[in-house]
Amino acid sequence: MNQDAKSHDSDAGSGDPRRGFFAQVASIVVGGFVGLVPLVSGLVVFFDPLGRRRSQGGKPLRVASLDAVPADGLPHRFPVIDTRWDKWSKYPPQPIGAVYLRRQSEDEPPQAVSAVCPHLGCAVDFKADQALYQCPCHNSSWTPDAVRVRPESCPSPRDLDELEVEIRNDNEVWVRYQRFRSGIAKKIPE
User: How many CA atoms lie within 13 A of 170 on its CB side?
Assistant: First the structure.
């Protein structure tokens, strides 16, 4: 074999140590990136249910029978019950909120308002002796038709949130239950 060929072969075998180092670093970086992408994607999918709200709001839910809502012009509180689920579990039906239903006459469908205060999200009570809704957190008041009393000094930025009502099967009251952002004057769904 020729002397030049032997020296060329020995140079190729020894190699430059810097080239080997850069090749190792590049393969670690590329390998880390390739392994990191599926790991992050898997964690996002796994933890997705933790960021979900506790109900799938905005859908009609059966609240009461029409016979259970007296036509006396006063609001009556009813729980809103729904089945909750996420990617991991399905939960049995349970209360997710409450609404007030009020009927003026037997011929009219009831008016539904949320039992959540638009100011801080506290549960609103109806005081029958005063014929007013009241918030125990900051003393806002509303009339039986859900309008603020003294709006200029009321801490609540808006009237109580009215909800859509449907009468199904001639005797079932269904309410499109949803929550709205609190603390702002505009009624924006959460």
Answer: 0
Measured CA to CA, the distance from residue 13 to residue 188 in angstroms comes to 71
CA distance 95 to 21: 63
pTM of the model: 0.68
Judging by beta carbons within 10 Å of its beta carbon (0-12, 13-18, 19+), is residue 149 exposed, middle or buried?
middle
The three-class DSSP label of residue 68 is: helix
Asked whether residue 134 falls in the same domain as residue 172, the answer is yes
Q: Per-residue pLDDT tens for 77-89?
A: 999 999 887 767 8
88 with 118, same domain: the answer is yes
> Any idea of the CA torsion for 114, 129, 173, 84, to the nearest 10 degrees?
40
Do 25 and 91 fall into the same domain?
no
